[in-house]
Amino acid sequence: CFGIINPKKNLCLGEKLQAGDRIILFESSGIHANGLTLARKIADDLPKSYLTKIDEEKTYGELLLTLTIIYAKLIEDLFKNTIDIHYMVNVTGHGWRKLMRHKKELTYKITDLPPVPKVLEFIIQQGKLDDEEAYGNLNMGAGFAIFVPEKDVAQVLKLAEVHNIKAYNAGVVEVGDKKVIIQPKNIIFGKDSLQVRA
Question: Please, which of 5, 44, 147, 176 could form a disulfide with 107 given CB 3.0 to 4.6 Å?
C-alpha cells in the first residue's frame, strides 16, 4: 500500500518534535492489525473457538472482525485546520513502545489511559498477559498518536469529535532518555525494547 502526500507541506517526519509537545491518542476499535497470532492461539484453546460469547451480544470472532478505524480523513482535516502536527505514529506492532519510534532522544510520559476494548481485555485474560506485555504488544485502546503543541490540543479534540473518533490528551514529551513511561501502570519501556527501523 502506498499513497501520495499532497500538498507536500503536509509531509510530517518529526523534525519539530520537541519537549513540551502533548501526546494525543486516538481510540482504537479493537484488535486492529497486531496481536492476531495470539488471538488465533486463544481461539484454538476455547471450547467454542471463535463462537465463544464475550458478552450478551457478540462472539469472540465477531469482535475480532470489528473494522479497524482509518485515521486518514481526520489527519487530513487537522492539516486543513492548520493544526501544527509535530509527529505522528500508528500504535500497532510493538504496542505503545511505538510512541518513541522517532530517532530523537526524548521521554514520552503517559498520564491518562483510554479504555481498553472488550476483545483486548479478553485476549489479555485468556493469554495471561501482564500489563507490560499487553502495552508492549497490543494497542490497548489507542490506534494512532499525534504530537502537537499545547495550543492546538483543544482544536484537535474538537475535530476528532466531528469525525466521531474519541481522542485523549494522554501525556507529554519531556527532556530525557529515550523511553516511554506509562505512569498509571508503572511501566517503563526503554529504547532497547523497540527494535524497529526509524
Answer: 176
